Amino acid sequence: MENILSLLEGFATALQPQYLIFGFLGVLVGTAVGVLPGIGPAMTVALLLPLTYTLDPTAALITFAGIYYGGMYGGSTTSILLNTPGESASIVTALEGNKMAKLGRGAAALATAAIGSFVAGTIATIGLTLLAPIIAKWAVQLAPADYVALMVVAFITVGALLGSSVWRGLTSLGIGLFLGLIGTEILSGQQRYTFGLLPLADGIDIVLVAVGLFAVGETFYVASRMRHGPIALVPVTRGWRSWMTKDDWRRSWKPWLRGTAIGFPIGTIPAGGADVATFLSYASEKKLSKRKEQFGRGAIEGVAGPEAANNAAAAGVLVPLLTLGLPTTATAAIILSAFQSYGIQPGPQLFTNQPALVWALIASLYIGNVMLLVLNLPLVGIWVKLLQIPRPYLYAGILTFAALGAYAVNFSIVDIVILLFIGIVGYFLRRYGYPIAPLVIGMILGPMAEAQLRRALQLSQGDLGALFTRPFAAICYLALIVIIGLGVWLRHRQSRLERTLAAAAAANTSLSAAVNQAWDAGDRPTDIRTSDIRVQPPLEETPRARGSRRRDDDRP
Amino acid sequence: MSTPSAGASGISPARPATGDEPVGTTAPRSNLGELIFAGLALALGIFVFAGAFAIRLPGAGTQVGPRVFPFLVGTILIVSAAAVLVGVLRGRLADVEEGEDVDAHAKTDWITLAKITVFVAAHIALIEVIGWPFAAAVLFGGVAWSLGAKRWWAALLIGLALGLVVYVLFGGVLGLSLPSGPLLTWLEPLLRSLRG
Questions:
Q1: Is the CB of A220 inside 8 Å of chain B's CB atoms?
Q2: B179 plus B138 within the same structural domain
Q3: Residue % of chain A over a pLDDT of 70
Q4: Which whole number is the average pLDDT over A500-504?
Q5: Which chain B residues touch A38 with a CB distance below 8 Å?
Q6: How many Cα atoms are found within 13 Å in the side-chain-facing hemisphere of A84?
Q7: Residues of chain B scoring pLDDT < 50
Q8: For residue A170, which residues of chain B lie inside 8 Å, CB to CB?
Q9: Where do the H-state alpha helices sit in A15-83?
Q10: Nearest residue of B to residue A527 by CA position?
Q11: Average per-residue pLDDT in chain A?
């Protein structure tokens, strides 16, 4: 009951005009960066971090939450309308959504993605509202050893399980942990790994690392092998009033709910990341569908489910972030560092120490979802225009704003030099297949993990066994083993899915693919011929048994 | 094999090799770069581990000193980088990362990368000499031109407009003054009055 009151107070705060404006700016920017290839919410939040030091924390965090949610909405527009393979996070939506767009049903795909995102986002935010205070209350009892266990789980799942290569993920995590070590050690006050350089004494700013890796590294990577020529957008037929037919609604609402049910829990556990949730949702929709043959050819369930799962997972990620201070995605890690830069430490005490801030933030999520629905349904045409920005200008702009963001940290040129250096490292990380997210999470979570580890061993007087004997910690490690097992199985299935996608993409270069591009399944002339071939053998075996009328029909 | 369902059952064996195979089977990629990068990560791990010995211990009373975590981090780096190294030597190369604007089959365009790096360096060198808006124009125009913008002067003009807008927004609204350079010094008092 008291939570409902707190939430209402949160609404009273979040509905104040200035916070509404910041929330709107957040979702607007978030959708834009979600739509634009090359930048994501993690980089945007990092970029805006120095600019918001002049704002009050509530306004800044509402803006960041808007960017976070907006980025999830915007991504689907890109994958549905852009006719090039995207990142793996949106690959599932691209699979069906892009096919739908090519069949002239782009409007329906966009609508089911946006409405599904709204439904899932709202339900998952309700889940967050109900669950977070309970977890926070319970988490007060957690001991340092339990936090160590949670962080180990987060490190292993993010580092080893989410990328394409276990060891590359762990190397990336190690580099991030090392970057987190640089600076002044808290307890003894001495500098570690600063090489006696003064700018390193306070550690490397996370803004530089995140912007360098995500923006500069990405720009370098794209520049090194840019796709030239016109931007292949799938045109969307006019008639926005008839986004979805009755049949589309009937086929969408269950996947929305199922996607939410899959996405939210996966988001809340430290094995999170929207990738896994979207993939699981897609697989289950395919399994449950009565029209399996439509999957891979533009099944609306394959857009509705994964998009809902994606957004529900995004809200789920906020549960461990707010109640335990545990980020499970790169964006969450940067939002955590935003909290820290205001001197606020997310964790069990957040709900008791900063109730006004937390509840205003949660209320802003409800409001942001409504804004995003409006921004993404009737106004989707604007975002389509955004997709058509010529790429040289787009990446020049990204790099200019990255340099600006780095410069704005301290108004020092040295920071842009560091940014350039990190960007070059980021380019090679990307080039050689090292995932970026473990690095960012390692860098932000590393110092916290060290503090908790030392506290835990202090309490146990150096007894390592104490790290494992607390019941919650033991459950965490057991769960980790289960997660690793599940992860291996999932990776197996996912790589199978990706291989089929790669095969389909490769087929696009052949002549038959040209046919696939022009017509879609069932409509193309080659399809008719194949089915005829299958019918012909029995005809040849018993030609006389059949009537002549039938044979005339077969003749072209 | 022209239907997507044939592709959905795995890599269709019936598909003839076209030479345009997906990632991994294209022209044999050199693994030298990957070896160097993994080697550097390994060296970093050794550095972190060895460097941990140089950390002073604050004396008795603490169970876990400031060295323990660095040892752990060094170990993680050494083990995982060594594993990557071994993997690469055994021929397990990285997956080429895909993206909307990335042509996975293209060769690395080092010249464009060099151009962009030069323009970022020029931006860094020019900020305090000619002012942020103009340095931003150089960066924006230069990068757009490197990436293949057709009219370099248009890119430069867009960059200049962008730089001026950001300069005024920063100075006027956010209260963060970017270096104005000799050409725009007259604007500074104006922006200050705008803030009130």
A1: yes
A2: yes
A3: 85
A4: 67
A5: 99-101
A6: 18
A7: 1-27
A8: 76, 79-80, 83
A9: 17-35, 41-48, 57-81
A10: B3
A11: 82
